[in-house]
Amino acid sequence: RGSGEEEQQRRYEEQKRIERERIRREEKDRKRREEDERRREELERKRREEDEDMRRVQERMRREEEERIRLEEEERKRVEEEERLLEEERLRKEEEDRIRRENEERKREEQRRKREEEERKRQEERLRRLEEERLREEQLAREEEERLREEKRKREEERLAELERLHNQEMEEGRRLKEEAEERARVKEQNNINYRVSNSELGNDEEDTFEVKAIYSFKSTEDGELPFRKGATITVTEVIDDNWYYGQLGAAQGMFPTTYVVKVEAPDLPPPPASPAQRIEDCLDNFTESPDKNEPRESFLDNSGNHDNSASNLDNRSAEDSDDSNFQDYELYIAQYSYQPLNDDELELQRGDIVEVIERCDDGWYVGTSQRTEQFGTFPGNYVLPYDE
């Protein structure tokens, strides 16, 4: 009996131990479950926080993206608005420029039409005035001829006065050189006199004359020297030495260096036309005597086919044109050689004569009036050169 109770007691104790162990295990499991639950909750809480943070970040990024898109859209709209305004401004300026150009073109056209109308009226008035002047000049031909001659004489005097003034200026510029070279000039002049005396004694004055052409312009610096321009033709009357000639240019005479000139031969005459009278008529067919193309041309020939040497027709024509300053009816030429006429309609030339040429014919003959003799006629064109006043 005693051992049975102990056994029971032992069993009871064992059961209690097992129960306690079970309870301990359950408590341990419960704590473990609670700890797991707490961990899960913590993890869930952290996940929710992370999700919330992620959501906030995404929301912030979304708002930033929206803000960026909104700003870009505003910027795009602003740029488009500026471009639209600029385009409108450009179109407005182009329209204003177009209108301004049209107005200017219209004004220019109106001014052009006005100028044309004024020019037409001036032309009509000018033609009327020229016709009246022509009628009046026909009645006063002789008086006008004398007036023109007087004006020509005055112009020649003024030209000579201008040449004298220029000559005085050149003399003033060369005064210093003249003072330094007086002795050399005296020696050259004495040699020149001696040479001319010797030529005169030998009787060969005319045999040694020849003509030379200037290849350079020469300005005299001493008394006794002959100035000339490039292209001038000079008659050499004496050969002073190898370096100096003595010659004549027009009415002037003097010494000049041989290196400034070359010898020339007298030209051959151009072939004359078949008829002397027809020569002038052929030349004058192409000559315009008046600015009015419809005005009839007066004949320069008399009934016999020869030129009227009084030159009244030419002077009358010159008088008619003298009031029109824009019309020049002749060109000035200077005779380089003397020419004796072979026909009645030809003009006598002396070397140095100034000729008013009104026409240059295709066959090489010129038509004009000599200022020295006031005679009118034809002459060979290669006997003259253009005259520069």
Walkthrough of the structure:
- This protein has 389 residues and is an alpha+beta fold.
- Helix content is 56%, strand content 14%.
- It has helices at residues 2-139, 141-173, 175-180, 182-202, 276-285, 312-321, and strands at residues 210-214, 233-239, 244-249, 252-257, 261-263, 331-335, 354-360, 365-370, 376-380, 384-386.
- The strands form 2 sheets. Strands 4-3-2-1-5 form a 5-stranded antiparallel β-sheet.
- Helix 2 (141-173) packs across helix 6 (312-321).
- The longest helix has 138 residues, at 2-139.
- The chain is rod-shaped and about 200 Å long.
- It starts with a helix and ends with a strand.
- The model is unreliable at 197-207, 269-277 and 288-327 (pLDDT under 50).
What is the terminal separation in angstroms? Answer: 183 Å
Major sheet: 5 strands, antiparallel
Helix-strand sequence: HHHHEEEEEHHEEEEE
Rg measurement, Å: 60 Å
Keywords:
389 residues; alpha+beta; five-stranded antiparallel β-sheet; 10 strands; 56% helix; 14% strand; rod-shaped
Write the topology of this structure.
Elements: H1 2-139, H2 141-173, H3 175-180, H4 182-202, E1 210-214, E2 233-239, E3 244-249, E4 252-257, E5 261-263, H5 276-285, H6 312-321, E6 331-335, E7 354-360, E8 365-370, E9 376-380, E10 384-386
Antiparallel strand pairs: 1-2, 1-5, 2-3, 3-4, 6-7, 6-10, 7-8, 8-9
Provide a concise account of the structure shown:
With 389 residues, the chain is an alpha+beta fold. It has helices at 2-139, 141-173, 175-180, 182-202, 276-285, 312-321, and strands at 210-214, 233-239, 244-249, 252-257, 261-263, 331-335, 354-360, 365-370, 376-380, 384-386. 12% of the residues are buried.
